[in-house]
Amino acid sequence: SLFEQLPSLRADFEVPASLCALGRLQHVNAWVGSARTITPLHFDSYDNLFAQVVGYKYIRLYGSDQTAYLYAQTGGGSGLNAQGNISSVDVQQPDLDRFPLFGRAYFTEVVLGPGEMLFIPAKCWHYVCSL
Fold it and tell me: Do residues 94 and 4 make contact, with C-beta atoms less than 8 angstroms apart?
């Protein structure tokens, strides 16, 4: 997250009180990316309220009930794969010979523009591509 790299930047962001009234706020993250930046298919262990500020993002969502089709990388160790929450499948060019069940997975897709928000529940798989 940008806030981890530049902690002083966090002071420039204020979480609206109305959002805090909905429950306990666990994390506040900011991500910056150029066009065609891709976040691989993964899930988070906490709810997300994804707010798009500038530009557009394509987001593909898979419910947690689709996990059996998404080929989660084996967890363990340290680093990005430690939680077992990242898919081995390249969503843009899936290798259905290697990952045949991926073709059976149901998904929803959306394009978010400036000022739009999307709630992504904990354990909901999501793939993001900047347009």
Answer: no
Nearest to 58 by CA among 124, 116, 122: 116
Cβ atoms of 124 and 42 within 8 Å: the answer is no
* 121 closest CA partner among 59, 34, 45: 45
pTM above 0.85, yes or no: no
How many secondary structure helices (H) and strands (E) does the chain include? 2, 6
pLDDT tens track for 107-126: 999 999 999 999 999 999 99
Q: What DSSP assignment string belongs to 29-41?
A: ------TT-EEEE
